[in-house]
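Re: that chain you flagged

S.,

Sorry for the slow reply, it's been a week of failed gels. I finally had a moment to sit down with the sequence you sent. For the record, here it is as I used it:
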Amino acid sequence: MDSGTHFIMGLGLFALAHLDPTVVASTPALVGTATATVIGSQMPDADIITRLGGNAFYLRHHRGLSHALPMLAVHTLGIAGLIAAFGYGPPLLHLLFWTALAVFLHVGTDIFNSYGTQVLRPWRKTRVALHVIPIVDPFIIALHLAGLIAWAGGSPPGPAFLIVYLLLPAYFAAKTVYRRRAERALARLYPHARRLILPKSSPFAWQVVIEAPHHFLIGRYAFGAVRFRQAVIKENADSEALAAARRSRAVQAFLAFSSTVYATTRRTGRGVEVRYFDIRYFGRERHPLMLTVVVDERGAVVYEHLAWKCPERMNRRLGAWAERQTA
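Prediction finished late last night. Pasting the structure tokens below so you have them in one place:
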């Protein structure tokens, strides 16, 4: 989920914690619990600092070790320990419980979207992604906002958010069932094709990508029907250029991040331009995940750029680089 959703869920957990008598027993207990749930709901994303190493470094490490099961215990103990050391929070076991709930809920919700997390590290580096909830889910946000409004209007926060957190797993379960129905429907229609079913902001619709031997079909599944709006013809890629491009750290990070990659090659005066696309973002006009690499005649990678942006901006950046090379 995005950081805004995690923040509002941290507030929601603090409201829910009012059901715990030890939390509402004193002001220091309330302050410590609020700090624990808000920071705990954000802590796994502390790996945002990896952006300082560039987009490729960030892509390789975001939602990696910081979201792994052993680190969840480290986050919990570290946050609760610091709060307790300053004399805030309820009794330690209660503080640990609310902190752990915030940390684990962060990673648990991340697993349900398409980015996924490396929650099984260090045993496995595979990203666990269930493709059920979008990064920004309007229903989850609206549910929490309704609870906060009820709290601001005078309703007891504990019971209000008990309703929120009973509805939340029901929503996740309903979306999971709905997605499985979509999978079965598409399997009947395209039994031999690779099928990707990805969440959209609407709770009733899914983005669909069908990969056939020679093309991709991009469309929308909703209410038992699928409608395709775009077809992408597969191009024959230069295998030597692809092999050379794999030596790029950006390419290695891209391939480690996504198992749904499509690559194209184009020969230019500068060498071979290799472009990688994450199939999960086909059909989106804004912020598709793209990587451009240029391999020269000697097989050396002379340019690489990984970003979430529209193809036009990627082309302008590549054009500016080419002009500098010929200046």
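What I noticed first: The longest strand covers residues 225-233.

Talk soon,
D.
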